[in-house]
Amino acid sequence: KISDIPIPERAPKHVLFQRFAKIFIGCLAAVTSGMMYALYLSAYHERKFWFSNRQELEREITFQGDSAIYYSYYKDMLKAPSFERGVYELTHNNKTVSLKTINAVQQMSLYPELIASILYQATGSNEIIEPVYFYIGIVFGLQGIYVTALFVTSWLMSGTWLAGMLTVAWFVINSCTDPWYSVGGDNTGY
Question: pLDDT tens for residues 145-186?
Fold first, then answer.
């Protein structure tokens, strides 16, 4: 009776190689699409605001809406004499809401800014790069990771990495349309 049970056959080596090649190319495409998107955002930001040609205060002014507030907390962490003192000042913040002391870290979810400030100081980047460039680099890098995650999710749901490429393409097309781009007519964004 034991000999009646069929023994599963091993997949031929060329099938295993094809699977490995598909996974390798898919992973390479996922990482490349995320990196390319981060580089695109960086170039677009530079082109739109002429970021490198501005003074420090003008660079900070280019942050719009909530990004300016979050950058200011990141900058406060860098100005603090120690990390512990910076966290204490943010958890006992009386500057954000008038006549009220709040825990800004918890209420505004400032954990990414805390991590960015730790990374900036721990890696010795303060001798190499300005804080604003480090901060926007992290923001653009996280957007690249987001695009990579979209790619992988689509790939896993469909079973083919080509669907991941299509998802990334549609994401870029839909998210990177700037209303000023078509209104201005001069392709500068102004």
Answer: 999 999 999 999 998 888 999 999 998 888 766 544 433 333
Residues 190, 188: Cα–Cα separation, whole Å: 6
Q: State the DSSP code for 150.
A: H
Best CA proximity match to 48, nearest among 62, 27, 66:
62
Give Cα separations from 155 to 138, 166, 185 (angstroms).
25, 10, 37
Measured CA to CA, the distance from residue 65 to residue 67 in angstroms comes to: 6
pTM beyond cutoff 0.90: no
Contact assessment for residue 149 and residue 38, using Cβ atoms and an 8 Å cutoff: no
The residues, any chain, with a CB within 8 Å of residue 95's CB and separated by 6 or more, are none
Specify whether the CB–CB gap between 71 and 60 falls below 8 A.
Answer: yes
CA distance linking residue 44 with residue 41, whole number of Å: 5
Judged by phi (left if over 0) then psi (alpha if -120 to 50, else beta), residue 50 lies in left
Length of the chain: 190
User: In angstroms, rounded to a whole number, what is the distance separating the alpha carbons of residues 147 and 34?
Assistant: 5
Q: Check the CA dihedral 63-68-71-76 and report its sign.
A: positive
